[in-house]
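so my prof wants the structure for this chain in the C-alpha cells format not the other one, which i didnt know existed until like an hour ago. anyway here's the sequence
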Amino acid sequence: MELITSENILIIGSTLLIAGVLIGKSSYKIGLPLLLIFLLVGMGFGTDGIGIQFSDMHTAQFIGMIALCIILFSGGMGTKLSAIRPVIVPGLVLSTVGVLLTALLTGLFIFWLSGMEWSNIHFAFLPSLLLAATMSSTDSASVFGILGSQKVGLRNNLRPMLELESGSNDPMAYMLTIILIQALTMSGKLAMSTLVIQLILQFGVGGAMGLLMGNITRWLVGAYRRIGSNAARGEDAGQATAMISILIIGSVFFTFAATNALSGNGYLAVYISGIAIGNSVLPNHRGIAKFMDGMTWLAQIVVFLMLGLLVNPHEMMDVAAVSLLIGAFMILVGRPLSVFISLLPLRKITFRSKTFISWVGLRGAVPIIFATYPVVAEVDGASQIFNIVFFVTLLSLLIQGTTVIASARMLRLTDDSVSDDDDFGVELADELPTSLHTITLTERHLESGNTLRDMNLPAGSLVMMIRRSGKYIVPNGSRHLHPGDTLLIIKEENVQ
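here's what i got, hopefully its the right format
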C-alpha cells in the first residue's frame, strides 16, 4: 500500500494543525510561549515521537521562506510610523550593529569552545562565525507573538523599539549567513571589498525595492477600487476586502522574489513595503489587518510544526552540553554586551531599559530556517550547526520567552495604564479625521472624581464605551468609574 498519498498528507497535516491549536490553548495556563508549544508538538509527531518522517531541508527552507515573508510583512504592516519614529535610531542600531556584535562575540566563544579537549564540536573560525550568524537576530515571530499576546504596556517606547529591531534585524543575520557560506564554499576566500559591496547591495536594493513596491501596491489597490467604482453594479464590501488582501499577498511574494533577483535583501524589502502599506489609507483597513493576522498565525504554526518534524531529538542531545553553554553565553553575555555596546552613544536609554532589551533577545523559527542553509549548501559540520541552533532556540523560548513580562515588572518598566488591545471591535473609516484610543483607569486617573465629567479629557476627545469585567457599558456624564475600567476614546485629529 502506498503511504505517501495526497489523502495521507492532508490527514497528517490537519491532525498536526488541530493538535497544535488545541494543545497551544494550554500555553496560557502553563505560561509557555504559544510558538514553543507548536515546536514541541512537531517534535512529538516527528521521527523520535509518533514517527512521521520528514527530512527534506530544501522543502523546509522553501516553506520557511514563504512563512517568513508573511510574518515580516505583517509585522511591518502593524508598525505605525508615529510609534517607531522616536525609536528608529536605537532600533536600527540594534538590528545592524547589535546583530554584528552578537555574531562576532558568540562566534569567538564557539571557536574557543571548539578548542577544548572535552568538547565534541571542532569548528574552525569561519564555521564558528557561521553558527553564530544563524542565531544572531532576534526572532520576529516570537517577539510579535509574545508581546502581542500580552495585555501589559511597556514604558519608554520599549515595545515599538523591540518590534522594530526584531522586524528589521533578520536581513543582517541572513546576509552574514549567506556571505559566510559563500566564503566556506570558496575555501575561505572572503575579500573585504566583496563583503562591503554585498552589504551595500543587500541594504540599498532591499530598502529601495521595499519603498518602491509599497507604493506600487498602494497604487494597485487604488486602481482596483477605481475599477470597482466604475462598474455598473457595486462590488460587495466583503469581497472587495478579500480580493485586496489577496492582491497584497501576491505583491509580498513578488517583492521578495524581484528584490532577490536584483541582488537585494528580499526580507528587508518585504518588511519596508509592509510599513509603507500599513501606514497608508486602505479601504476596510481593519478587515485587511485581520486577514493578515490569520495568515501570519497560519504561517507561524506551519513553520514551527514543520521545524519540529525536521529535527531528530536524539541527534540534538549529542550536542546538548555545548549547546547549553552556547545558549547560556548568548543569553547572559553575548546579547547583553552587544546591546550595551551598540547603544552606548544613546545615553537617554536607561540602564533598566537596556537590561530589558538584552533579555528580549528571543530566538525562534528564523535561526532554525537560517540553519538549513548550511545543510543545503553541504557545508562541513552543517548537521551539528542545525542541531545546536535548534537546541539554543528551545532554550531561549523556554527561559526568555516565559519571563518577558515578569522581567519587565521586576525592572519596573510596565505601564498598566496603557492598553494596546482593540477588543472593542470598533472601526472608523480611514477618511475620517479621527482616531481611537483605549486607556485603563488607575487611582491616579480618578483623583479629581470618579465620573466622566470629572475627568480632564483633551479637547476633541469623547468616551464612546466603557469595558468593566468583560461587560460593555454605554457612558454618560454621571456614570461612576472604577479603577480597572477600560475606556474607548474617539479623538478628533488636529484640534486647534
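also thought this was worth mentioning. The CA atoms of residues 69 and 258 lie 13 Å apart.
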